[in-house]
């Protein structure tokens, strides 16, 4: 019986459009970062660049239409779950010299 019913993941069509727009904008940002760094980077390395460089984060928020740093960072983690599991990111966040500026407040990180 369930074969005949269409599977609808989300009844709101705007949400699907928003997800497609975000995916396209994030892919464009990843390409831009790879061009600027002149090397091929994977998603965890791009995530670290967004955390490390405030200017890259501003461009990311502008391209993906995000208002706050928190919203921007959580959106990446939602769409790319392998980012939160990466040993490289944990190592970066636990390093003694890591200081991330979020909303003009420097924060030292520890996991």
3D structure, described in words:
There is one protein chain. The protein has helices at 13-37, 43-52, 54-63, 69-79, 82-85, 87-94; strands at 99-102, 105-108. The chain has 111 residues and is mainly alpha-helical. It has one domain. The protein has a two-stranded antiparallel sheet. A hairpin with a 2-residue loop joins strand 1 (99-102) and strand 2. The longest helix is centred in the N-terminal third of the chain and has 25 residues, at 13-37. The chain is globular. The model has no long low-confidence stretch (mean pLDDT 80).
Summarize the structure.
The chain has 111 residues and is mainly α.
Features of the shown structure:
about 110 residues, mainly alpha, two-stranded antiparallel sheet, 6 helices, 2 strands, globular
Any chance you could write out the topology, listing elements then pairs?
Blueprint: H1 13-37, H2 43-52, H3 54-63, H4 69-79, H5 82-85, H6 87-94, E1 99-102, E2 105-108
Helix pairs in contact: 1-3, 2-3
DSSP strand tally: 2
The end-to-end distance, rounded to whole angstroms, is 48 Å
In the sheet with the most strands, the strands line up as 1-2
Share of β-strand residues: 5-15%
Helix content: 55-70%
Tally of helical segments: 6
């Amino acid at each position: 019986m369930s074969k005949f019913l269409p599977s609808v993941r989300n009844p709101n069509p705007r949400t699907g459009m928003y997800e497609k727009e975000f995916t396209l904008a994030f892919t464009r940002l990843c390409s831009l970062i790879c061009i600027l760094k002149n090397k091929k980077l994977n998603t965890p390395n791009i995530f670290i660049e967004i955390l490390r460089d405030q200017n890259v984060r501003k461009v990311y928020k502008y391209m993906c239409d995000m208002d706050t740093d928190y919203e921007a960072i959580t959106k990446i983690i939602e769409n790319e779950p392998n980012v939160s599991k990466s040993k490289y990111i944990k190592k970066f966040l636990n390093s003694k010299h890591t200081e991330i500026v979020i909303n003009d407040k420097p924060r030292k990180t520890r996991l």
